[in-house]
Design a protein that fits this description.
This is Ornithine cyclodeaminase family protein. By secondary structure, this protein is of the alpha/beta class.
């Protein structure tokens, strides 16, 4: 085997700015990607955490993201998620590139979430459109909070930001990370922040709902993407029951999404399952007047493959030039 190109975190970020990642996700969904055909994520125990393997296949490239999830790492000043992405030729199944995996995840997660938020905004009923300068509330102050703030600004250039975090030092660190983007620290008054928000982004590792869903404004859009597993959740049933719901993929949501675990029973999944991202970007989602919209996801393998393919293509183009 010849030497494989390796894209470190800086190279991944350089090749995959948020607007490019969002465009790639949308184009992929419009040109053949079916979230319902995505393979399940594979979990296995690891010391102090777990291994997470995410395989995906495509016409030109296939890939495997191999991560470790260490819940105790943030308290030690270390990253919770670490790993690598291996991109393969679908023709020969030979590996063609290796990439740093955490940076890929930090870009694709907000790229998918903001693709959904922007499409839900485009589908708003008359009189419920987002303002030109939407108030965006972020729950969380870690890596994904920073990524979602930056992606939200790419999606909505006039956005103004509020943040609710658990620890003051994390909020202070977030302020330095996203500078010169400014935000208000609303940790002391989260209920008022929820009442004022046009967009709410939930990017925490919470095990219980972050706020009272009855406080969310009727025109607001909520994206909850911080947790995976039916025992973990960021949203309450009050919000889920009053909102228009969109998921990444119906099978993955039914299997892994704790935000929906108690609000939608088996009969509901069979008779009236929520729309998925393909439905949304294809224009098949009709929002209900007087109801907020919720997008909730757990992370899927097809998203990483789309983003990794862009990194490889952009990197190869840069080397040729």
């Amino acid at each position: 085997m010849t030497s494989l190109p390796y894209f470190d975190a800086d190279a991944v970020r350089a090749a995959l700015p948020y607007d490019r990642a969002m465009r790639a996700i949308r184009e992929g969904l419009l040109h053949g990607v079916d979230p319902e055909l995505d393979g399940p994520r594979l979990f296995s125990p690891a010391p102090g955490g777990e291994f997470l393997l995410m395989p995906a296949q495509g016409a030109e490239y296939s890939g495997l993201k191999a991560l470790t999830v260490a819940p105790g790492n943030p308290a030690r000043g270390l990253e919770k998620i670490q790993g690598l992405y291996v991109l393969y030729s679908s023709d020969t199944l030979a590996p063609v590139a290796v990439m740093e995996g955490a940076s890929l995840t930090a870009i694709r997660t907000p790229a998918v979430a903001l693709t959904a938020v922007r499409a839900l905004a485009e589908a708003a009923p008359s009189g419920a459109e987002l303002p030109a300068e939407p108030r965006v509330l972020v729950f969380g102050a870690g890596v994904q909070a920073a990524s979602h703030i930056e992606a939200a600004l790419a999606a909505f250039p006039g956005a103004r930001f509020d943040v609710v975090g658990r620890r003051p030092e994390r909020v202070a660190a977030l302020r330095e990370t996203v500078a010169p983007i400014e935000f208000r620290d609303r940790t002391s008054d989260p209920e008022d922040a929820v009442r004022e928000a046009d967009v709410i982004l939930c990017v925490t590792s919470a095990s219980a709902p972050l706020f009272d869903g009855s406080l969310v404004r009727d025109h607001a859009i909520v994206a909850a993407v911080g947790t995976h597993g039916r025992e973990l959740r960021e949203l309450d049933d009050a919000l889920v029951s009053r909102a228009d719901i969109v998921v990444e993929g119906r099978d993955s949501a039914r299997r892994e999404n704790g935000n929906l675990a108690t609000a939608i029973d088996d009969a509901g999944w069979e008779s009236a399952p929520p729309a998925n991202l393909h439905d949304l970007v294809s224009g098949r989602v009709v929002r209900t007047p007087g109801r907020p919209a919720v997008y909730t996801g757990v992370g899927m393998s097809w998203e990483d493959l789309i983003c990794a393919s862009v990194v490889f293509a952009e990197g190869r183009l840069a080397r040729e030039n």
